[in-house]
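Minimal example, chain plus iron/sulfur cluster.
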Amino acid sequence: MHLSRYNLLFPVDEKGMYILMNNLSSAMDIVDDDVVDILRRVERGEKVNNGDTLTTLKRKGYVFETEEYEEKYLNYRFREYEQKIKMSLPVFYLYPTYACNLRCSYCFQDHSARKNVVIDDQCLHAAFESMDYLQEKSPSKELPYFVIFGGEPLLKSKRQFEVIKKILDESSNRGWKPKIVSNGVELESYVDMLSSYDLEFIQVTVDGPETMHNKRRISPKTSGTFTPIIRGIQKAVDNNIKMAIRINVDAQNLALLPELARFFIEQGWEENKLIVPYMAPMRDISCMEYRHRLPEHVALHQIYDLYRNYQEMRVIHLIGWVGAEIFRKALETDQLPSPQFKFCGANMTRFCFDLKGDVYTCVNCAGVEEYKIGRFFPTLEIDESALGQWRNRSILHIPECKSCNLALVCGGGCTKLAAEKGEGIGRPYCTDVGEVLSESARYYYPFLKERPEGEHHR
Ligand code: SF4
Ligand code: SF4
């Protein structure tokens, strides 16, 4: 018998109890010392007397008859995963400008290179033609997930306002529901126009209560960006536009999250279903050493303490910690862990189109020549070999990942960071995903235990 390579076992804060998880077979269970003892006996090749438990462990994919059988199952799940990606909706990001009206304390962009240039009409036309072509080619029958990104897409200028309107006209004519990622500073002046379109949602960033936010999200022109952003959010929801409020969390603002949560409640936003505040870890997606950045599991440990101690934290959702999502989904939606053979959309179906006519796959690589995978202006020309480097990156193609027990949670790490800080695109980029899982197992255990089905969570 063979113990699955992808079993993950987490001790919890109750003596002799554990959460056992396997992302290859999509299984998650609460188990005790006796079950762990059986797993250890299987690992050592010893005889197991408890036949019923062993049968259950085999049925759930924690134990296989042989290693070859697990390998076959792994390949089967990979083919299934690839097929699912092939059939999933295309994802398009459009960068109408790289210019931005903020100079955030943690921003790694070179602003001298980001002049106030907006995409011209010919290039915009070519971008939509290319998106139409790629959608047509996609086996998916779903409409694309379309994101208007930047730079800052909602800048206060006549030309930019017209361009955004044009983009919304084009996408609406195709039946797409755009999502806009903005810093929110000029949102208020855009709402009247935006409200005549069917938007998926607008995402803006609020990095803490007013003083902290203003210290981090800095405008060279106005004294504080907090107030205009809050006014913009309120006006947007008053006009029936869904808003996602992103909070970038690190050591500088983490302790202030309860205060920010109280502010949201005072605004009456808790009851407003159009508003979703959520926090995401400040990640190192550049080579910049940002001094307030916390390892993800350290931030999460502190955030779980805030959730335990401050009722008001309920209004801020926890999104973006890969290992934590698994437990949250199991609890809230009954979804079991599924294998992640790849890390992000750059390895799947995403294309990013910029104002210069270049195409990328990584959201944070747009504008960086060495990462471009083709052009769309004047005509669409994709460099299949450059694209393949991103699309074919999976844990099965990185030897260290294939033998790593965290692989099917991790997906091999960020491709950009592997290229810039690691040993190259074809190599792993490890993070603290194991520690994130351990922290999350301890936090979610009491909730999982109380679920009506008791011991097993299949
Ligand atoms: S490759 Fe890394 S930086 Fe680029 S989109 Fe994916 S996770 Fe983000
Ligand atoms: S990147 Fe590191 S942690 Fe992630 S699967 Fe590969 S070896 Fe494991």
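The first strand starts at residue 2 and ends at 3. The chain is about 40% helix and 15% strand.
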